[in-house]
Amino acid sequence: MTPALHTVRTWAAHEQHPRHDELAWKLAGVAFAPQPDDAVADMVINRLIDNAGVAVAALNRTPVAAARAQALAFPRAGGATLFGVSPMVRVDASWAAWANSVAVRELDFHDTYLAADYSHPADNIPTLLAVAQQCGASGRSLLRAIAVAYEVQIALTRGICLHAHKIDHVAHLGASVAVGIGALLGLGREVIYQAVQHAVHVSCSTRQSRKGQISSWKAYAPAHAAKLAVEAVDRAMRGQTSPSPIYEGEDSIIARLLGGAGHEYTVQLPKEGAPARSILESYTKAYSAEYQSQALIDLALRMRARIVDLEEVASIAIHTSHHTHHVIGTGAGDPQKMDPLASRETLDHSIMYIFAVALEDGCWHHERSYLPARAARPETGRLWQKISTVEDAGWTARYHAADPRERAFGGRVEILMKNGSLIEDELAVADAHPAGAAPYGRPEYIGKFRSLTGGILTVGAQDLFLASAARLNDLTAGELDALVPELSSHDLLQITNEAIF
């Protein structure tokens, strides 16, 4: 079905426009998409499995434990559950969204969609699940809400670049969560419209969260935007209005934070009443690292067989897209990306570090590859410092290609040896990408889940979760708890720092 294209720009105060011309109103309309078809439903289940695996694997990392401790300070009868915690313990849905979103995001290991901007659309799922638990929604409603939220976030990521203006990509998450909740609860369009405007207004923050010495806030940023969206919907349901028009006004997001007066954006949405299918354009990760490193890790694993002695490498040049060069490459200008004492969050945004370790180890692991002792190896440091990135117009064009078959997020690598010989290779997309050599299907998602949760969940607990996820469309409200796996309480890291809550 042909999509609808919407031109978005700022409006002068004297211009008169009907509400249905506003982007927030059009986004709200996506909430009324029909129930997804089998292909979309299967992918929603894949991403539920993916999220649970990476969340459980991260449960005892300190950012996740701290977020969980905050959430536990807000108990609520009939509320939502937390990853790892007994379902007998319920907390306010907005705080469950907070803690569970941090757990999902911490390892940088779930799905992605790249276009004009960046996104991790599975960031929508923990919040929608928490609200579904608290409000008694069915699995069928949750499934449709997830597909709707993906549609909105991917449309905004495709059409409105935040990064160019150093606004963090989670600003689009506020809108997608608000519309997703609207679909989940069957809210009216006016309520969803007001919630979107509120959520977008308060979700904008700068990209300093992903610059320099990257902190634990990187995992919290989507949780913060999602929690604000829950509050925005709650407020709109109580009949309250929000700054309008949030995208087009003279002092709006576009006018003051993005392109400004005269700049136009084009946002592609399904026609009203058409299904939400954009989740099928997103992709997950085989490796716990920033998505633009995925193909380059595969390439490093492939190229290492052609190098007898890594000490004989003179230099390595990675020719890649503008975004990759400037976000995780030497084009970022961040000395921290070359520092063995850098945080894990910084290292997973340094393709120089990632490529060096993948070349040396011939594998990638979500914990071992980032250990301080691993980063501090002298031989790694020597190789690491020889790696640079080069912005290549051809790879940039492929990154933004309209045709998904041409779209690429990889690069070409030139390894110059000290004897003057040159080893070259290139890879357009990661092996796990839908267009890759080994695209992920349900067996791969299940394998990733079992690998990440092995030794944490029992085989019985794994099986129960997987069986419940597979039945998502048929789950009753009371069965949604099975989508949030539980650990024994003594297996969970406890944060005991003095705090306000």
UniProtKB/TrEMBL annotation:
The source's superkingdom equals Bacteria
- Taking every annotated instance into account, which residue ranges of this chain make up the domain MmgE/PrpD N-terminal? 22-264
| Domain named MmgE/PrpD C-terminal: residues | 287-468
Q: According to its UniProt record, which protein family does this protein belong to?
A: Belongs to the PrpD family.
- Protein name in the entry: MmgE/PrpD family protein
Organism expressing this protein natively: Kordiimonas lipolytica
Q: Which taxonomic lineage is given here?
A: Bacteria, Pseudomonadati, Pseudomonadota, Alphaproteobacteria, Kordiimonadales
